[in-house]
């Protein structure tokens, strides 16, 4: 039973309060200002900036994943959409195909495979 007991809320942040405050400024500048080709933040990029800027090395991304959460950041969607995006095709799919998917299979359980006819 002792092995199953909670050990608390998890590992402590490796950054000091001051470093966390400084880290909040990083996304405002944009990833391109740090030399990245595209202006988007990933966990790998955040880990690199934390290591370069504060000298703190996270060995895996699980610790880096907690940083944005601790600071109240959320995942964001891109402001722009792909040029290849076809809004009419998407609308047609949502109107015609999605309702059938939501309904589920047309027949009961079973398999279309001739070698597996389902439960007997």
UniProtKB/TrEMBL annotation:
Region annotation Disordered: where it falls in the sequence: 96-120
Domain Winged helix-turn helix: residue ranges: 40-96
Entry-linked InterPro entries: Winged_HTH_dom
Polar residues composition bias: residue spans: 110-120
Protein name: Winged helix-turn helix domain-containing protein
Gene source species: Nocardiopsis sinuspersici
């Amino acid at each position: 039973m002792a092995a199953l007991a909670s050990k608390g809320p998890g590992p402590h942040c490796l950054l000091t309060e001051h470093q966390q405050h400084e880290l909040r400024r990083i996304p405002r500048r944009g990833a391109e200002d740090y030399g990245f080709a595209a202006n988007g933040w990933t966990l790998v990029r955040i880990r690199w900036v934390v290591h370069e800027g504060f000298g703190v090395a996270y060995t895996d991304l699980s610790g880096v994943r907690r940083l944005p959460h601790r600071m109240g950041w959320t995942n964001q969607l891109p402001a722009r959409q792909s040029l290849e995006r076809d809004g009419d095709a998407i609308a047609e799919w949502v109107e015609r195909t999605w309702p059938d998917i939501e309904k589920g299979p047309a027949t009961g359980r079973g398999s279309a495979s001739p070698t597996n006819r389902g439960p007997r």
